């Protein structure tokens, strides 16, 4: 069954093979980024629902409930809010 990613209240299809950042880019959703490998923290978003898997260890500081979109994927429906 296809998964979805909800961003700022709007649903999009989720490609589980791509990172969340790549999913945002594929839907032309604006998201800042810099290093794309978990160091800078620029790509952080708030995870409102669902669970993500890190493909790189996140080196950037994260507050509770935040995720780095450049180095996470998800196999389930997720809900994000961008800053
Ligand atoms: S773009 Fe740098 S941590 Fe994601």
TrEMBL record:
Q: What is this protein called?
A: Ferredoxin
Q: Which organism is it from?
A: Psychromonas ingrahamii (strain DSM 17664 / CCUG 51855 / 37)
Q: Which GO terms describe its molecular function?
A: 2 iron, 2 sulfur cluster binding
Q: Which residues form a coiled coil?
A: none
The record, for InterPro entries, names: 2Fe-2S_ferredoxin-like_sf, 2Fe-2S_ferredoxin-type, 2Fe2S_fd_BS, Beta-grasp_dom_sf
**Which Pfam family would be a valid example here?**
Fer2
Q: Which residues are in the 2Fe-2S ferredoxin-type domain?
A: 3-83
Which keywords has UniProt assigned to this entry? Ubiquinone
Does the record's keyword annotation contain tRNA-binding?
no
